[in-house]
Design goal:
2 domains; eight-stranded mixed sheet
């Protein structure tokens, strides 16, 4: 399955500041597959070591963290000599072995000629604990569920992806292409971006098989709660995970701990929320009352929304039936537009980075779904599930802050009215390009 991260792996390989790589990502996002493909295509050979599958591996790191001794032992285990520059070492589920994780420091300091890529389903959780290993000794990449553009590749629609990426001005797409992309977007809402689910849809065209994949993935996540989380946090993790759908279904999607149970308090659940976030299972968007740069410093840390990592997983958690695919726009509007907002959060996380924010004025009368920084400015993005384009909050934001550009994403075609640009939901992956390459005119000064 083609993934955009592959280009970043090649950049890492050729970088003058290459260090051992840590590839983070939730379970079933395709980390092992992409690293093995990378090793197969970009090196003479690769050596794969899975610390979860083989308990013997940790013992090779327990007596000494000297890189040359480790390489000798791994070569002996593999019955083939490991050569720097020519071979890729893949340490999978490395979070199982503290010694292996700590060895990355010494590879960086004493043996940087070796190419090492490590991965693990709960690396984010592991690395959030103190003294995991010294900071500054590794490079990081994050592998997320497939974006809609990657989904187009997976469905054999690379031509449509290239068409969208080659757009160099803002005007409506031909109606035939627009409707075709809406149909594909509807399928993405159901399938989401987990690689195995996309493969099932592309190769078998079975919606039931897709849902079965989702159920298996969800089961693996909940089993991880019991296997890897602190005992006291396990029920809290389950409570938060189980209430994501109901919380998003509310008109006010701010996460309310009291909705879990009446006596629930934020400070009691804080560690569980952070665990889910570090594991890559949820996305959080923080509230901003006054949009100032940097937005990260303007966040209200105790007011946030929680989204699922993937819109397909969200649909499975909500027991959304496959029949909804044939009901026109109903899928987009399900749960007060929760799927559309979750979709937008997922795409923005992939193309703009991990920091998601939304704006709400202090008296709570106006709210814009997302804020993002680009080209030296702060821009609002309103998410519309259907074709109703009323944007009172967006115009309220503009009147208050005189934004250079306003963005709305919806099922409508691509178009620009003054400083307001409607981005079709299927074109959202190109939002940074639209701003950074100045494809739009800005508000005239004065």
């Amino acid at each position: 399955m083609k993934r955009d991260i592959y280009a970043h792996l090649i950049t890492w390989k050729n970088s003058s500041r290459r260090k051992p790589l840590i590839l983070r990502g939730a379970r079933q996002t395709g980390k092992t597959y992409i690293l093995q493909k990378f090793g197969q295509q970009e090196f003479d050979d690769f050596f794969y070591f899975n610390f979860e599958e083989s308990s013997r591996l940790d013992s090779l790191f327990s007596q000494s963290l000297d890189p040359e001794k480790i390489i000798f032992n791994l070569s002996l285990l593999s019955k083939k000599k490991i050569l720097p520059g020519r071979h890729l070492l893949i340490f999978d589920e490395i979070q199982v072995s503290n010694n292996a994780l700590n060895s990355l420091k010494y590879f960086q300091e004493k043996a940087p000629e070796y190419s090492i890529a490590s991965a693990g389903s709960l690396l984010g959780v592991k690395l959030s604990s103190p003294k995991s290993f010294p900071v500054g000794k590794v490079n990081f990449l994050d592998l997320l569920p497939m974006t809609f553009y990657e989904f187009l590749d997976g469905m054999g629609e690379t031509g449509l992806r290239e068409y969208l990426e080659d757009l160099d001005h803002i005007e409506p797409l031909p109606e035939a292409f627009h409707q075709q992309l809406i149909d594909l977007l509807r399928r993405y809402y159901f399938c989401g971006g987990m690689p195995e689910a996309v493969r099932c849809l592309a190769e078998e065209n079975s919606l039931e098989e897709v849902r079965q994949v989702h159920r298996e993935i969800i089961t693996s996540y909940t089993l991880d709660f019991a296997k890897h989380a602190k005992t006291a946090d396990i029920p809290k993790l389950s409570h938060i995970w189980d209430c994501i759908v109901s919380q998003l279904a509310r008109e006010n999607k701010k996460f309310m701990f009291s909705a879990i149970r009446k006596s629930a308090r934020a400070r009691d659940y804080e560690n569980a929320v952070i665990w889910l976030e570090d594991a890559g299972l949820i996305l959080r968007a923080f509230c901003v009352n006054i949009p100032k740069r940097p937005l990260l410093a303007s966040r209200l840390k105790n007011i946030f929304k929680i989204y699922a990592l993937d819109v397909g997983i969200l649909g499975a958690m909500a027991n959304l039936d496959a029949e909804i695919l044939v009901n026109g726009e109903q899928l987009f509007n399900e749960f007060s537009g929760a799927f559309t907002e979750n979709y937008a959060a997922q795409q923005l996380r992939a193309v703009s980075g991990p920091n998601l924010q939304y704006w709400k004025n202090k008296n709570g009368k106006a709210e814009v779904d997302f804020l993002f920084e680009a080209k030296g400015g702060i821009y609002p993005l309103e998410v519309k599930a259907g074709v109703n384009l009323k944007s009172k909050s967006l115009h309220f934001f503009d009147n208050k802050y005189n934004s250079p550009l306003l963005f709305r994403t919806s099922l409508h075609n691509l178009r620009k009215d003054g400083i307001l640009c409607n981005i079709p939901l299927y074109y959202l992956d190109s939002l940074p390009k639209i701003v950074n390459q100045s494809l739009l005119g800005f508000r005239e000064e004065g």
